[in-house]
Amino acid sequence: MTSIPIRRALLSVSDKTGLVDLARSLADKGVELVSTGGTAKALRDAGLTVKDVSELTGFPEMMDGRVKTLHPKVHGGLLAVRDDAAHAASMAEHDIGAIDLVVVNLYPFVQTVAKGAGRDEVVENIDIGGPSMVRSAAKNHAYVAIVTDPADYPLVASGETTMATRKRLAAKAFATTAEYDGAIASWFAFADQGERFPETLPMTLKRAGPELRYGENPHQAAAFYAATGPAARGIGQARQVQGKALSYNNYNDADAALELIAEFRDAAPTCVIVKHANPCGVATADTLEAAYAEAFACDTVSAFGGIIAVNRPLDGTTAKAITGIFTEVVVAPDADEEAIALFAARKNLRLLLTGELPDAGRAGLSAKSIAGGWLVQSRDAGAITAAELKVVTQRQPTEQELADCLFAWTVAKHVKSNAIVYAKDGAVAGVGAGQMNRLESARIAAWKAKDAADKAGWAQPRTIGSAVASDAFFPFADGLLAAVEAGATAVIQPGGSIRDDEVIAAADAAGLAMVFTGMRHFRH
């Protein structure tokens, strides 16, 4: 059986968007309307004839409406196999009429949690009858159409449905109840019970837009699934003002840029430039334009085709500077009209406006797929203040060295391990990322700093008089000595190596100031 006329429809919605127009269209085609509570009232107020569910079942909407649709005359009408003789006989014997269409959207559980409602109100907004009808109708999609989204009303407004339409609606309906149950399970586990890693971890994601052009490489397929719920804030929720659709790599790199710029949410104007998920330039200055110039100077080669993120609304002057080279994506809390107009001439540049930047110290989980499962951990929300640092060398760091240490440490947290970052006067001097040993990272970062100085015509690289951060401890003194050769005068690292005494002695011999954080920032 393919095309089926709709003779009876049951409508029960919390979101009344488009309800009256759909119901009127169905009624004009002779469809009997059955409804409940506020939905029935809305339809009657619009002049439509509606039968109450209580009239259909012969039972009142008792217990504050909790059991109004939990009845054989509802679910029998949904689940009956129409061309099964035994089912048809049961329907006739018990006066159960077929229901051909169900239009339901569920109690606003997520919205209730988001507004900070108390526990009793949250629990009361767990829908029972709605999901039950959705599942019954979706299971019996050979005969029944189920609509859970007002955007799909046009699919049933004609008064009949095809098998292809019913299958599509059923798939969406089961996804809807899965998402709904996932939100409830998450609330119980995390908010109500305070579990860190529940035995079952609900992960319900909704695809945002069509499939991406390809994945990391052209032979890989890809899609982006946006997190849902009140806490969702990031690249997935940003408003794209212009430019072509984001690619898989754009999403990945833009996320890396946003996570790093969020560390400077409350700082002076700051600019971050990211390439292949690693920062290649970061700087803080008095203006965004100056911060961009300083960040760009760190590595003018890697910045080409990179991702830029700023912590202040983007102004026209900074936007003009950014258009000096090819940039894939710019991420900002907001942008003025001049900036937007300047970028409009760059059709391949994507501008993403995030609103308030996310809190770098927010709680949450991160997950990574591996063969046969998932690794799940709490977000790396760790941060260190100057008061928490432990000076381990004979020489104390100066106030400027301490500031540069903390700046370099913040950036190193977002660099792929093994990570080494040199910084001076609120700007990155050089970055060594993703090497198999720390010594090579230190050397690469120093070489990049020298190359930047040569390109800019500076008298010396920024590593001279800089602070150097290592995301994990120096297992040997060789990495530290490479930083000395580069001109660093201060070091920040976690400490904790069995050779800490050897490393500290090397720092003292070189006249360095070194502080331990007691916290590691591996990033794989």
Q: What would you note in describing this structure?
A:
- This protein is an alpha/beta fold and 524 residues long.
- It contains 17 helices and 23 strands.
- It has helices at residues 19-28, 37-45, 53-57, 72-79, 85-93, 109-114, 119-124, 129-139, 163-192, 248-262, 288-298, 316-322, 337-344, 399-412, 438-456, 477-486, 500-509, and strands at residues 4-5, 8-13, 32-35, 51-52, 101-105, 145-147, 160-161, 206-207, 225-226, 239-242, 270-275, 278-284, 306-310, 327-332, 350-353, 365-370, 373-378, 390-391, 420-424, 427-432, 467-470, 490-493, 513-516.
- Strands 10-15-14-13-11-12 form a 6-stranded mixed sheet, with helices on both faces. It has a 6-stranded mixed sheet with strand order 18-23-22-21-19-20.
- β14 (327-332), α13 (337-344) and β15 form a beta-alpha-beta unit.
- α8 packs antiparallel against α9 (163-192), α11 runs parallel beside α12 and α15 runs parallel beside α16 (477-486).
- The radius of gyration is 30 Å and the shape is elongated.
